[in-house]
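[Meeting: bench + compute handoff]

Bench side (C.D.) handed over the final construct sequence. Compute side (W.E.) agreed to return the predicted structure before the next meeting so the bench team could plan truncations. Sequence as handed over:
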Amino acid sequence: MPGDSSIETADAGQIAYANPRSHSILSDGRRLNVLEWGDPARPAVMLIHGLRDHARSWDWIANELAADYHVFAPDLRGHGDSDWAGAGSYGIANYIIDLADIMDALGLERLALVCHSLGGVLGLRLAAAFPERIGAFCGIECIELPIVRDDQIHPTPFPVRLRGWIDEERKRRARLPRSYSSLAAATERMQQEQPLLDHQTIMHLARHAIVTNPDGSVRWKFDPAVRPRAPEDAKGHDLDDILDAISCPVLLAYGDASWIPIPSEKRLARLRDHRVVTFAGASHWLHHQCREDFLRETREFLKSRFESPDHA
C-alpha cells in the first residue's frame, strides 16, 4: 500500500525531506513494514537498521541516496511498524528469512546493502547466502555480535546459556513494557541513552519510535522480547564461513570513540574485497554523528564499487 510521499520538515532546524512510500509485506503471515524512496528505474539499495531501532532512523541517509538510487528500508520483525513475533522468534535466522521474503516480494534481483549494527550482522549473512543478488555491502560496526565477543572472552556451555536465556525471558514476561508520560519524556530518555547525538536527531528518532497507549502515555514500538539474544547466536561458529562466502565489495565503518572494536586483521582478511574507514570522535551511531562524512564515503563506495562495470 503506497503511503504518503509529501514533503515535510522533520524538526525545527532540519531541511525539508520527502516522506517515504510505505508497503506492507507478509512473511509467514506476519506483516512487515517496508519504506521506499526514489525512482524504481534506478539501482536498488536496502537500508537495514539495528536492534531497538526503526526504518525512519534512515530518513536523512535515504533522502540523500534517493537522488541516485531506488531506496528501501524495512522495519525488522518486532521493530517500528512491523508485527511483533514474540519470545524465541528473534534469532538471526528469523530475521534473515524476512529479508529474503522482502527481496522476493519487491522483485529486488540485485541490490546494495547499507546496514547498522544488528542490521549489518543480518546483511552480511544475506550477502553470503545470496551472493548473486548482493552487489555491494556497507556496514556500520557489524562484524561480530556483542554476545559473540562476550562468549569468546568467557566461553559458556550451551546448556548454561540456554538456562540463562530462559531465566531472562521469564523475568521479561513478568514486567510490563516501560511507558513514559509523554513524547517529551521518551525523547529525554533517549537523549540520556545517546548523549552524543544532537537533540534534533533525537527528537526525530523518538517521534517515530513511540506508540500511544490507551491511557495517553507512550511506549517504545519495539517488542521487549528482541532484547535477549537467542542462545544459539552466541558462538558465531559460522562467521568465518559467512565472510569467506561474501563476493561483493565491502565497506566497513567504525567510530574511534565507540565501544565496538574493529575486528582483527585475521578476521577481516576473510573478506576478499574490503576497506575499513574510521570516523574520528564517533561512536556506534556514527551515521547520525558524522552524517555528511558517512554519506560522502557511502556515495563514493556505491558509485565506484556497485555501479561500475567491473562490479555490475
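W.E. noted at the follow-up: Residues 17 and 155 are 47 Å apart (CA to CA). C.D. will use this when planning the next construct.
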